[in-house]
Amino acid sequence: MIDKLTSALQFQQQALALRQQRQEVLASNIANADTPHYKAQDFDFAAALKRATTAQSAPTKLAVTHAGHLQMSPSQPLVALQYRIPAQSRLDGNTVDMDLERTQFLNNSLRYQADIQFMDDRISGLRKAMQPEQ
């Protein structure tokens, strides 16, 4: 029973984890808007989600060879960050375009909220399905 619930919610879990990671990347770009030589980064959400959902069939365990190594959570998919190509170069070498970053940040925030609402609706539906008829 738990396996079926987990598989029913796994796609949304992956999407939320990727949205959260993207929000952190965009926030980092905004925070470093005035840092000389900072290169803005982002990742392709659709490609990362596709890669995460195809890899979710078998969880991978990482080998820990030293006690100081950090454990990686299997719910956090790995993403390949890419540098953004600036529309206009700046003298200090910074590639952050604040208008673009704010737009992407807001877009990602709205989609994150929509994903949470969708997951909440899904859980409510599953909960109702498990309730005995009265």
UniProtKB/TrEMBL annotation:
<dbReference type="InterPro" id="IPR019776">
    <property type="entry name" value="Flagellar_basal_body_rod_CS"/>
</dbReference>
<dbReference type="GO" id="GO:0030694">
    <property type="term" value="C:bacterial-type flagellum basal body, rod"/>
</dbReference>
<comment type="function">
    <text>Structural component of flagellum, the bacterial motility apparatus. Part of the rod structure of flagellar basal body.</text>
</comment>
<dbReference type="GO" id="GO:0071973">
    <property type="term" value="P:bacterial-type flagellum-dependent cell motility"/>
</dbReference>
<protein>
    <recommendedName>
        <fullName>Flagellar basal body rod protein FlgB</fullName>
    </recommendedName>
</protein>
<keyword id="KW-0966">Cell projection</keyword>
<comment type="similarity">
    <text>Belongs to the flagella basal body rod proteins family.</text>
</comment>
<keyword id="KW-0282">Flagellum</keyword>
<keyword id="KW-0969">Cilium</keyword>
<dbReference type="Pfam" id="PF00460">
    <property type="entry name" value="Flg_bb_rod"/>
</dbReference>
<comment type="subunit">
    <text>The basal body constitutes a major portion of the flagellar organelle and consists of a number of rings mounted on a central rod.</text>
</comment>
<dbReference type="InterPro" id="IPR001444">
    <property type="entry name" value="Flag_bb_rod_N"/>
</dbReference>
<feature type="domain" description="Flagellar basal body rod protein N-terminal">
    <location>
        <begin position="9"/>
        <end position="39"/>
    </location>
</feature>
<keyword id="KW-0975">Bacterial flagellum</keyword>
<dbReference type="InterPro" id="IPR006300">
    <property type="entry name" value="FlgB"/>
</dbReference>
